[in-house]
Specification:
Blueprint (H helix, E strand, L loop, with lengths): L1 H10 L14 H31 L11 H6 L8 H15 L5 H27 L7 H22 L12 E3 L7 E3 L4 H19 L7 H18 L2 H6 L11 H19 L8 H18 L3 H7 L1 H20 L9 H7 L4 H21 L5
Antiparallel strand pairs: 1-2
């Protein structure tokens, strides 16, 4: 919105409003989106939490077969804190991004759509006093539909790079210079797989106080740099990356993600006063997947978001092995609970997983220069 204001005054010949010139700079608007999103979440904080406690009563249901101390320590903690995150993220993006950019609207569609699905899931759990939300199959179908609509928006309306007109329907491979695979319209399926997979991977990870929040912020920071580089022809050419016109604008969305995450962590740090719930985890994960699709760096997401991948694989392996043999590989899945069962404290698991996320993000960024 503020960018439109800058364009309006510039076109009107009001160049004497010099302070508006700051709005030309993507870095300034990204910084302001961080601060705006954080301020909104913090401002909502205590009042929203008290309101949720009053509405939810007993708070989020805790798995009876889970970690026993969680039943005592986390009982009564309200959920749906993702509403706070979404408020900061969406408002921060709308205020500081160029709203004529199709990537912004595609990302907001995925974020808001997945946030709404997560809200329905959380609401179902709270009202039924059960850890089972809405039907998994129904949720998967709706997630896929939202992802495909967002990808279709990008394919149809985003600017096509003149040197690679098929890039928007192609998969780019890291490390190998210029290697792309044009999937044509089958890219809708591949892109939806990335977005849906990322959403549910973050959802699996969200099991301890602050465990999902910080890795999402780390991944957002890494992709913010990637978006800035890929969206700048000079930097993209120097690093031998595929130039994607207009995609640099999503750095503002990612900045708002970081700001909202910082604000939420104030209340979600152990011991958490509120959980983000599926409302937050699905929205944040889906947003990361959509960013990977927009920047044409989908494969790198498996490395930058390697923690989320490991959490998801631990669940898949555990379920598959148990069905086949009747035995478990991990003491409990997702894998963060396995380490709790081994005797690690919650804070130890969380901080060590944060460290792993930082290292994976740095490795992912290193691939940008390896060609």
């Amino acid at each position: 919105m503020f960018y439109w204001l800058y364009e309006h005054f510039s076109m009107g010949g009001h160049s004497h409003v010099t302070v508006l010139n700051l709005l030309r700079y993507l870095t300034f608007r990204t910084l302001m989106s961080v601060l705006t999103a954080q301020a909104i979440v913090v401002a909502m904080g205590s009042r929203f939490i008290r309101w949720m406690q009053a509405k939810q009563g007993k708070g989020q249901p805790i798995r009876a077969e889970g970690i026993q101390r969680h039943i005592v320590e986390k009982a009564g903690t309200p959920t749906m804190g993702g509403v706070m995150i979404l408020a900061g993220l969406i408002v921060g993006t709308l205020l500081w991004a160029d709203l004529s950019n199709v990537y912004i609207w595609a990302l907001l569609l995925v974020t808001a759509g997945y946030g709404f699905l997560g809200f329905l899931d959380d609401y179902s759990k709270v009202t039924k006093r059960s850890t089972d939300g809405i039907s998994g199959k129904a949720r998967l179908v709706m997630e896929t539909a939202i992802a495909m609509i967002a990808i279709l928006l990008i394919i149809v309306f985003a600017a096509k790079p003149p040197e690679a007109p098929n890039l928007l329907t192609s998969v780019a491979f890291p490390i190998v210079k210029g290697a792309v695979l044009n999937l044509s319209w089958f890219y809708l399926v591949f892109g939806a797989f990335v977005i849906v997979g990322a959403a549910n991977a973050v959802n699996f990870t969200d099991g301890l106080d602050g465990l999902a929040t910080v890795p999402v912020m780390i991944a957002a920071a890494a992709y913010g740099l990637i978006a800035y580089l890929v969206g700048n022809f000079i930097y993209a050419n120097y690093l031998q990356l595929h130039f994607v016109p207009g995609v640099g604008e999503i750095a503002i969305y990612l900045g708002a993600t970081i700001g909202a995450g910082v604000g939420f962590l104030w209340y979600n740090a152990p011991p958490a006063r509120i959980f983000m719930g599926d409302t937050g985890s699905l929205a944040l994960g889906g947003g990361l997947g959509a960013v990977a699709v927009a920047t044409r760096q989908e494969i790198i997401l498996a490395l930058i978001g390697g923690l989320f991948v490991a959490e998801t694989l631990s669940v898949i392996i555990q379920v598959a092995w148990f069905k086949r043999t009747g035995r478990r590989i991990f003491l409990m899945a997702p894998i963060h609970h396995h380490f709790e069962k081994l005797g690690w404290s919650e804070s130890t698991v969380v901080i060590r997983f944060w460290i792993v996320s930082i290292m994976l993000a740095l490795l992912g960024l290193a691939t940008l220069k390896l060609r």
